[in-house]
Amino acid sequence: MGDSKGSLLNFPLLKSIGDLSVFKDNGEYGILGAVVVGILIPVLLSALFMGKKRVKVRGVPVEVGGEAGYTIRNARKTELVEVPWDGATTVAALFQQSCKRYSRNQFLGTRKLISKEFVTSKDGRKFEKLHFGDYEWQTYGEVFHRVCNFASGIVKLGHDVDSHAAIFSDTRAEWLITLQGCFRQNITVVTIYASLGEDALIHSLNETQVSTLICDSKQLKKLYAISSRLTSIQNIIYFEDDGEVKDTASGNLSKWTVASFSEVEKLGKESPIDPNLPSKHGIAVIMYTSGSTGLPKGVMITHGNIVATTAAVMTVIPNLGSKDVYLGYLPLAHVFELAAESVLSAAGCAIGYGSALTLTDTSNKVKKGTKGDASALQPTILTAVPAILDRVRDGVLKKVEEKGGLAKNLFDTCIQSPTSFCQRKLIRFVLCGGAPLSGESQQFINICMGAPIGQGYGLTETFAGAAFSEWDDNTVGRVGPPLPCCYIKLVSWEEGGYMTLDKPMPRGEIVVGGFSVTSGYYKNEEKTNELFKVDEKGMHWFYTGDIGQFHHDGCLEIIDRKKDIVKLQHGEYISLGKVEAALSSSNYLDNIMVYADPFHNYCVALIVPSHQVLEGWAQQAGIEYKNFAELCGKAETVSEVQQSLSKVAKAAKLDKFEVPAKIKLLPDAWTPESGLVTAALKIKREQLKVKFKDELQKLYECSI
Ligand SMILES: *[C@@H]1O[C@H](CO)[C@@H](O)[C@H](O)[C@H]1NC(C)=O
Ligand SMILES: *[C@@H]1O[C@H](CO)[C@@H](O)[C@H](O)[C@H]1NC(C)=O
Ligand SMILES: *[C@@H]1O[C@H](CO)[C@@H](O)[C@H](O)[C@H]1NC(C)=O
């Protein structure tokens, strides 16, 4: 196999991989399925094997203020960048200038719903199937007019410009128009995940005293149901959906002024109001993050933060411009998507909207024989979150493993040999953020998609901007040098054993300072003072709680997380994230949370097993069971999964105390809707601990 040539690889092989059913189960994976089918081996890959001689320096040490540590800046810029171009100091100014610059370019694209039907599956469940038409576009010039109209309309409707407005909706063109419209009247916008639970929604709206709420029409019913607890709301503006019957009749109409989005636009068009543009230190967005603990916290993001990240990311995506087409489908209420769309609209790109469930021709909600969003749009730039990429990789690998024989041989060749024949290259860049992507997944996606992955590292608190891997960096497992809008400092964390004097690389807590660092948490001075510091030069620093190390070329690698480290009874430290990452390579696992009680000397784990793999094993082992929950409860099953864990733990060289002594198999998946994982599919430890309190207690009760 070692001497096989790249020419062995041909289209049918990749096609057969793409056809594997993993891509048909769920819309999330679908896009990548389509991409694997359509796109071949990257030019870049050759560089991976030839470019080892010279190491390009991407980040260099720098002297800064604040706490002592080891600090790196981007190698290309001596001074931090603050704005994309002169005069674009606020999001409102930047947007107005882009719209002028690119006025005739296509900007926002949306697909019209042609029909909606229900199909019934064999087991009697009903599924909604949608048929969407082609993308219909509006130019930058046209969108700008709509933004101005909305800005006037919301004031005419009666919104008090000194109070906050909130957006509670899935990603769509009107989301962006609303945001920009509010900015033109210096209105701060509160953003809330559409999948956030009721209590978190009420908390966010009440804490910020939102008076106008802008939402999808499908949210109206939910809002009416909790109207007595929404004491600050005065106006509701809802986005119309084709084919949706609006539900304004069932609620408490006397209490709120309710208007559709188009009514507000019309109102503004008929009676325009002068804009009242914000300043760079003004708060543009209060973004509620689905934090991994307790109630969500509102991060105060200034106009200056947004334009700084935008300016910095524009310098790292090569040749970004009006030829580029981007598929927007992740939640805009997530900082990563909002930052991406800010960058693309500043560069004059076209943004076509889609959704996770309609991404490809074979996605769940797409009517058979009609096009998914990706085939209708043919994007050149995509975003993805690591958890999805990891699952795609695992799914493909498992399938290939099962097929064995020739397919596996060819596939291994494909992964291991340098080739550079690239036939139909559409996607030219993949933006990846939300959590660190494993090296294996990065390499895999690089090869299957034929496009470089720009891995971003950033948090809501740094408006997504911290580090970003450069397009010509083919190494894996790192997140690149600091973006040119900020510095990254490592600060020693003695208790955890990570020091800036460590060899061969300095290690420590990652602290970000610069123009992308936000102003703190809304109405939460305690937490703000704990995690944000202003140094003697006035620079803002954010303490991320992530542990990193700097490679010699100035690239950052995330290696641990401060709060996920628990000191066991006998004094050993256990890093829950590290153990979870290692154990995840067991085929049986869909999800895992390792838990360590400091009063014991071992850890335990909650595991959501993979239906397919576990049922496959049960069939082979001749195990009888009525349903999946029963299978999960069987002693043989638990023992089988535990053996598999021991095996991968050994391979990963985990210590004995790092291997869960007891496990509990849970039949139901952890989803963002259930609040157990974030929208980027990171586990929420605190929520899981609360929900499975009894199970965890039982795991520690039974003596071992
Ligand atoms: C914009 O609003 C902020 C409060 O959010 C206020 O401090 C500032 O003065 C306003 N700017 C203008 C130009 O009205
Ligand atoms: C809303 O916030 C106020 C304080 O600003 C608090 O007293 C009240 O209990 C909150 N209401 C709800 C429903 O959370
Ligand atoms: C309508 O509002 C009143 C007072 O605000 C409240 O008592 C009542 O429960 C509400 N009805 C519904 C259907 O929400």
UniProtKB/TrEMBL annotation:
GO molecular function, one term: long-chain fatty acid-CoA ligase activity
Recorded GO CC terms: endoplasmic reticulum; membrane
Keyword entries, A-Z: Membrane, Transmembrane, Transmembrane helix
Pfam family, one: AMP-binding
Signal peptide: none
Membrane found in the keyword field: yes
Transmembrane segments: 29-49
InterPro entries: AMP-binding_CS, AMP-dep_synth/lig_dom, ANL_N_sf
Domain of life: Eukaryota
Annotated ranges, domain AMP-dependent synthetase/ligase: 130-522
PANTHER family (alphabetical): LONG CHAIN ACYL-COA SYNTHETASE 8, LONG-CHAIN-FATTY-ACID--COA LIGASE
Name of the featured protein: Long chain acyl-CoA synthetase
Species whose genome carries this gene: Quillaja saponaria
Taxonomic placement: Eukaryota, Viridiplantae, Streptophyta, Embryophyta, Tracheophyta
